[in-house]
Specification:
- Chains A, B: It catalyses: L-glutamate + acetyl-CoA = N-acetyl-L-glutamate + CoA + H(+); N(2)-acetyl-L-ornithine + L-glutamate = N-acetyl-L-glutamate + L-ornithine.
- The structure is a homodimer.
- Chain A is built from eleven helices and 18 strands.
- By secondary structure, chain A is α/β, with parallel strands linked by helices.
- Chain A has two domains: 18-277, L-amino peptidase D-ALA esterase/amidase (4-Layer Sandwich), CATH 3.60.70.12; 285-406, Ubiquitin-like (UB roll) (Roll), CATH 3.10.20.
- Chain A has a seven-stranded mixed sheet, with helices on both faces.
- In chain A, β14 (344-347) and β15 form a beta hairpin.
- The first copy, chain A, is globular, with a radius of gyration of 22 Å.
- The two termini of chain A are 17 Å apart.
- At the A-B interface, α2, α8, α9, β16 and α11 of A face α2, α8, α9, β16 and α11 of B.
Chain lengths: 409, 409
Amino acid sequence: MAVGNADFPDMPPLQGVRLGTTMAGIKKAGRRDLVVIELPDNAKVAAVFTRNAFCAAPVTVAREHLAACQATSKAPRYLLINTGNANAGTGETGLCDARASCAELARLAGVASESVLPFSTGVIGEPLPMERLLAGLPAALDACDSAGAAWQLAGEGILTTDTRPKGASQTVAIGEHQVTINGITKGSGMIKPNMATMLGFVVTDAAIEQPLLEQLLKEAVDRSFNCITVDSDTSTNDACLLVATGTGAAVVTEEQVAVFRNALQRVMTELAQAIIRDAEGATKFVTLQVTNAASREEALEVAFTVAHSPLVKTALYASDANWGRILAAVGRAEVSNFDVSRVVINLGNVHLVENGGRAEGYTEAAGSEVMARDEITIHIGLGRGEEAATVWTSDLSHDYVSINADYRS
Amino acid sequence: MAVGNADFPDMPPLQGVRLGTTMAGIKKAGRRDLVVIELPDNAKVAAVFTRNAFCAAPVTVAREHLAACQATSKAPRYLLINTGNANAGTGETGLCDARASCAELARLAGVASESVLPFSTGVIGEPLPMERLLAGLPAALDACDSAGAAWQLAGEGILTTDTRPKGASQTVAIGEHQVTINGITKGSGMIKPNMATMLGFVVTDAAIEQPLLEQLLKEAVDRSFNCITVDSDTSTNDACLLVATGTGAAVVTEEQVAVFRNALQRVMTELAQAIIRDAEGATKFVTLQVTNAASREEALEVAFTVAHSPLVKTALYASDANWGRILAAVGRAEVSNFDVSRVVINLGNVHLVENGGRAEGYTEAAGSEVMARDEITIHIGLGRGEEAATVWTSDLSHDYVSINADYRS
């Protein structure tokens, strides 16, 4: 299931960026499962990774290779991504396999091993099927193409339980020059960021220096992938990259960063929301807006407490305007000196809770009308300050249980 | 659904304690839903309540009445409990209704209003059906009986989505005297303590002074009701009482408290576990033992992170030895400087994880054999210190979703 329709957008080609995919038989026969993304020389790469203490072997190796590139002022040249196997919980063997995969692609492409960054997603704890992966590399490399359509094939080649590929693109003017930002992402379960539980690859043709690039990525992730949750589970493999190829004419600097920052935020938010719309078993796309908080941390605490409540999520699935469950979830959030009589809750445009109880004039009919929609906004005003946060989540359906009880993911 | 069989135990009568129930039509026709528990004069009462900021009206009033009794050195004489309606999120009206219920029972029984402590459980946000509740009070009072069988009827009269009444009893010798502890509890969803999301009423015939009674209750709750979770949701109405009637011959003092403390812990643990065995949709009873932690808080953090993981809970439902999900949940627990290479995980007697990955010699067949059982112990050794914690939880099944999507609870 998934909420709404979402056609993969047209992606403009980015000079020097080529994407290739193949069906290596890692996930299952007839599924694209191996992706190579070639970057032009001198591209800058910023990355954020999972904070899960059990991080996967490719996360460790991608970090090492990025550090090695930066130490020698070289640029990463290839991203190597497989689905069907996370290469997580695989100990020393997993690290060897991730390194050997990079080495083989580097050999085929004639670059240094450290120029290849590995990413994996899929089942945890099984050894990477190295024979099939290595055998698939020449075909993936040969398939590399700069055409816009190659982005969609790459989007398909990184999916796990997702039902559709997810992409976003923005082209904006910076001064006299056009800048394009293309992104693809995957993820539909084990989604509670920090970093966001997903893979995301975002590339722009602008030139951006490393420190600014890293700052832009961190800011954008904090308000996109780090603000979504399906099931509160943080994966071992999350990674999000922002690549600036510098192959376009535009240069983004700290002095004139606003236009780029906004466009990047739009791309990242669209990608993050696409994950929620395609969340495992999702029948609802839910926006939680918490306002008038004393701090952004407090706003996020309330939003995530509501977003993680199985009782709120099952009520959303049932289209049941069970506002008592929302109120109970708000009440158990870890907020110090919480005066709940000041809390105001709205469901869409319907006033739900005030003065510690049901709002005057609220009717079940009005609440049910909003809950019947497939896109729902819950607004929670805390009456404590001026800070705010927005979090996106999905409902908890029978299909979520089926997908995760039946599928070894 | 529920795990295993659980007959309600034989309860010895406690001198001076009488329990009465009736079908007042608050929950639905033909269901016991109103319970009165009469205590002898001079009983000592200790209580712990929900920490949810949106606490229900009866919680506020019970706290007020307890404080009033203690200020005037009087003892509470009646516990008044209804199911079918939580009287939560009901604002000023809810407080008036809770007070009026106590006043009417006090009038009928000829005691002061403050001597009645109210408790409610059921749907949040609907006004208490006062006409039916008040009309039911004389019948509940008339039905008061000291026989052991009255405990089972009271156990039935406090249930919501529970499928069976839950009771526990211990009789132990303290010096030359026998001491009995009887307890009943309810709760099967919205169960994540702090205080435990449930109602619990535990009564002993020993004489125990107020400060010691409160300490004993707090200690026992922290290792029983505060160590269970069904769905991470903390209710607005939780309450647990420990009553010492002093009508038996035994006196419990700080100097010779060990026997009583152990018996109380057994009763409370049995009651807390009974909630998990009867959790909404439960097909598994799961014990999470975390050992070798640097602190008890850290052990609890790891245990609850695993216990709340929807991916672990659906794997348990599917009897799938998906140890990668357990490892990923352990890895996202908030533990500082977490060296996961020291983590050891066992599933029953099967060695699952060591050195950051799957344990050598582990076989899928061995893991599956344990997962197929309906009572499962997961042991997680952190390799950081000497502290430990045990948490009990259930799985996440299709029935959990059905119960909470179809039932306005």
